[in-house]
């Protein structure tokens, strides 16, 4: 089993989301000796830009036309990122909440790989088929605010809701998520939140 860990926190070992993601990998590895893990540190990754004429090729692709010859090389680089992602059976995403959503490096990655005829197919009537179907995804979502207890959480959460929506769009139906929230508070309270999150993620690993 091949697992890609997409790590969206720029923090060092203090990262809450990475600590829980690593707990998942350890729990999974303890029961699956075939587990291979690759880490994708989004803050060190070289992600292609989609500005200028590059984005016009996306419109070409979505209409079933070839990319502009001037951008063939750049689009081959994008294809490599998509092929890399599709080379894994399982996708683990760990991320902090930043301004209600995900850090821009994670959004950048999503914008790079989510391409027609590469990560999803569409027909003229708008039906979409995601090519990541059949994979499992696990999301670890940390936030300073207690999202799960907020009455308006659903209107403030563009982190977990965005990632679940994106994974669904690219065809993933086996999606699991653990929130670590709130990570702001008394140390003992945050320790308990971390312990709870680790317990939840270990249960997901066992059920896998
Ligand atoms: C730039 C920035 C923006 C943030 N925005 C939010 C936010 O909108 N809501 C929230 O609950 N926490 C926010 N936080 C707090 C982080 O989500 C929180 O500290 C989280 O536990 C960090 O996870 P990490 O340690 O894995 O990086 C923000 C932190 C930073 C650095």
How would you describe what is shown here?
The chain is an alpha/beta fold and 208 residues long. The chain has a single domain, classed as Flavodoxin domain (Rossmann fold). 41% of the residues lie in helices and 19% in strands. It has seven helices and seven strands. The protein has helices at residues 16-31, 54-62, 72-86, 104-113, 153-156, 160-169, 187-207, and strands spanning 2-7, 36-41, 90-96, 120-122, 128-130, 136-142, 174-180. It has a five-stranded parallel sheet, sandwiched between helices. It has a two-stranded antiparallel ribbon with strand order 4-5. Helix 1 (16-31) links the parallel strand 1 and strand 2. Helix 1 packs parallel to helix 7. The longest helix has 21 residues, at 187-207. The radius of gyration is 18 Å and the shape is globular. The mean pLDDT is 95. Bound molecules: flavin mononucleotide. Flavin mononucleotide binds next to helix 1.
